[in-house]
Design goal:
CATH architecture of the largest domain: Orthogonal Bundle
Structural class: mainly alpha
CATH topology of the largest domain: Citrate Synthase, domain 1
Distance between the termini: 28 Å
Strand order of the largest sheet: 1-2-3
Order of helices and strands: EEEHHHHHHHHHHHHHHHH
Number of domains: 2
CATH class of the largest domain: Mainly Alpha
Helix content: 55-70%
CATH superfamily of the largest domain: Citrate Synthase, domain 1
Strand content: under 5%
Radius of gyration: 22 Å
Number of strands: 3
Bound molecules: coenzyme A
Number of helices: 16
Largest sheet: 3 strands, antiparallel
Amino acid sequence: MSDEIIHKGLDGVVVDSTRISKVMPEINSLVYFGYPVQELVEHCCFEKIAWLIWHGELPSARDLDAFRTYERTRRGISPTLLEVLRKFPHTAHPMDVLRTAVSFLGMEQAKPERQDAEANMQRSVELLAKIPTIIGAFYRLRKGLEVIPPRDDVGIAENFFHVCFGKVPAPEVVRAFDASLILYAEHGFNASTFTARVVVSSMADLHGGVTAGIASLKGPLHGGANEAVMKMLLEIAEPARARDWMLAALRNHRKVMGFGHRVYKHGDSRVPTMKKYARAMADFTGQAKWLDIADILEATMIEQKGIYPNLDFPSGPAYYMMGIDIDMYTPIFVMARITGWTAHIMEQLANNTLIRPLSNYTGPAQRGVKPLEQR
Ligand code: COA
């Protein structure tokens, strides 16, 4: 028996310092460079948050103008990448498409040997600009529709709807979507961010770190939960069935998606804000049913287990009410978290130490290899 202390899942382990964000479960708050995220949502657009996450301060009017102009010119993807996207199976999960496409963008880098902060910042902005284009292109290709080139005269949220649907919806919808991007942008050392940091800690490149981050985010215990939440709401279908459904799920020791969190144990600080925007979508579309089901599930879960919903719980139905295909919800998370991942990658590289933990070996004790005839 070994007397090593094992921190399974790195639960409670502080592995490094970061200036980017702080999750404070004790006061139910999340700050990006000191600013509470719920305040940022009310006062900023997602582009300002991208700047904040990369530069540590909110942009001046001039900074924002220059940043917007540049980002909007970087949205196009190469004809080769578009050809590659055309060849993907239409049945592929869009997260797998995005993972492969981001990896492909890495191969298109003109000077891959450059690993300095300036080159990585430029790559980060390029990813922010191109990821919605990739999502929109695949969204349409798999439906047999023509790909729509990105616009250069609208913000990131509006452009997402344009490349997917060919039109920009009402300002209420764009606002709710933009709010979700701000809430999803950054969240400390979560699994995908830590994955990205681990990858680049070996001095691998930024696109490798982001590709791995996307792979990690896809899992239903992480970003994939927003898709699973909506599937669950569709399965329940009616508010009258919600309480019994939840009681049966708990009786069967089923993990209910959209509930629980490794860090927040008394509620996710982002949920009240996202709920507000999900409610706005329900009012706008007249689809209150999904939130009625969600409210009953939440009340029953808190009453029975004291477990609270996380951000994926209100964002899933909000995206559904916006008319977006369910398997696009986690790719939308990528559109936002690309800011946090790349900021963490640059922070890791600015003061790098190879991330290489130890393990407690539980296999056979050392032994000799017997010749074949004696085995
Ligand atoms: N549904 C039902 N029970 C849950 C639960 C959920 N969503 N989340 C946690 N629990 C229960 C566990 O069954 C466990 O109970 P036990 O002590 O009786 O065995 C206890 O709460 C602790 O859960 P655990 O999974 O060990 O906590 P964790 O910190 O490792 O997990 C999550 C955090 C997010 C992985 C977990 O809550 C989960 O799987 N949630 C669903 C997926 C999800 O919404 N992910 C998005 C996260 S932002």
